[in-house]
Amino acid sequence: MSDVKVTDNSAMFKAAKDRAVAAALAAIGEEAAGNAMEELTNQDAVDTGRLRNSITYATQQHTEAKSFSWHEGRSGEPAGNGSTAPKGTPEKDTVYIGTNVEYAKYIEAGTSRSAARPFLKPAATGHSEEYKRIAEQYLKNA
After folding, report:
1. Is this model's pTM higher than 0.70 or not?
2. Which of 12, 21, 72, 104 shows the smallest number of beta carbons within 10 Å?
């Protein structure tokens, strides 16, 4: 009778999968932030560039062991008053895009005197196939 040896590689597989997910989320965050910047530019909603340059992303991997803020991603600035950032720790396997510029919500949703010029929502929802392809690319190579 021959001996059969079983090796448990599940921990190694899980670690590789976790790294691939983290990399995919970061790539999607970068792409989504870029899409939001492009939305602003295409709508002629750029005056000084402050809002466009403040757009960033966050994931749980980028904010682990600290309260949620926009420390990682493009701008490197913490979320300020009027931020569109959710409070607390980001959910696992989630990408948030946003800005810490106080007047962003008035551009996104409009006011009684100016029409809405959404840039975050279209960047988040209007490119889902693109984000899906990014995730597939990273996970396929894990």
Report:
1. yes
2. 12
